[in-house]
Design goal:
Shape: globular
Number of helices: 9
Radius of gyration: 18 Å
Oligomer: single chain
Number of strands: 2
Structural class: mainly alpha
């Protein structure tokens, strides 16, 4: 379906307002620079996240709001609005359970589905962010700005499609589902 290749936004609610957000690489970089990396935060169950974790995660997600694009492109993440201080005033403790759920849903939407290593005999090669960027920008010829504004899921999907089209990877077989009535 075409909607599967379109940008996907998640919704979070703060002080009666609705925000369309994405955990793009820009958001993950903001989080890493101003607070701590997402994988470190995810080591704690989302229901146990403190107010600082929630505020920082929300602030990083605001990198995807269009009014913040200039600050994000300059890497001036402290100028992303609403600021951490403003979010601290807006977010009530009673809002935390719903906000935590909305954040974890948005984070999960941005992460690619894990691909199991089918051949246990074959070692898995290391592939880090530098390799990912080199493949996406340098090899595939995609714009740098697009790379940073994409989620890891979008990047992984686009790389897979590229490799399938180029014959470097087998295209998964289409499995048709039948109704046994």
């Amino acid at each position: 379906m075409l909607k599967n290749i379109d940008k996907h936004y998640s919704i979070i609610h703060i002080a009666g307002r609705e925000y369309r957000i994405r955990y793009s690489l820009n958001a993950l970089l903001c989080l890493e620079i101003l607070y701590k990396p997402l994988d470190e935060i995810l080591k704690t169950d989302f229901r146990s996240w403190g107010i600082d974790d929630v505020i920082q995660l929300v602030h990083a997600a605001m990198c995807s709001v269009s009014k913040n694009f200039k600050a994000v492109n300059r890497r001036d993440f402290e100028y992303v609005r609403p600021t951490v201080a403003e979010l601290g005033e807006l977010i009530n403790t009673s809002d935390l359970p719903l906000l935590r759920r909305e954040i974890i849903d948005a984070v999960l939407d941005s992460i690619p589905e894990s691909q199991e290593n089918d051949d246990k005999e074959k070692p898995v090669k290391a592939f880090n962010e530098g390799h990912q960027r080199a493949l996406y920008v340098d090899v595939m010829g995609r714009p740098e700005r697009e790379y940073w504004s994409s989620t890891n899921k979008e990047i992984a999907d686009r790389i897979d499609y590229y490799m399938e089209v180029r014959g470097m990877k087998e295209t998964p077989e289409l499995v048709q589902e039948f109704d046994d009535d």
